[in-house]
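Example record

The entry below shows one chain as it appears in the dataset: sequence first, then structure tokens.
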Amino acid sequence: MPTSQLASRSTIVVCGLAAVLLSACTAPGPESTPADPPPPAPPGFALPDASMLCTDLAEREQEMRTYTPSIGRVTLNGIVINWATNNNVDLIELARNRDAIDTALIEACPTVRDNVMSYLDIPSIASAIIGLPE
């Protein structure tokens, strides 16, 4: 399969995943009752070794550098979600503790993290990750 078709399909899959996640994080409709605030994060929330996340991000750096920052952010979310799912990370807790991604990447691959932030024009990886409202 040509690289452009693979990149195109990857982008479509990641966009679809982002749309699903965004729709799950929207405010309640007029017919629903407001939900209780989310419980606090468990003490000591930590992520597993991020070396595979670093590898995945490094492999897609060129793509994030080439495409627009908006598309790159969708790609970033897809990579992080895929890595978290493969490592049995609770995605709800991850959404509540987005800063843990930065901490893990600073320890595992600060250069890759800095490159991704530069390409996507973001102050931190956490700022581009889909999260839950505070």
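Notes for this example: Residues 13-30 have pLDDT under 50 and may be disordered. Helices lie at 3-24, 51-66, 69-86, 91-96, 99-108, 110-120.
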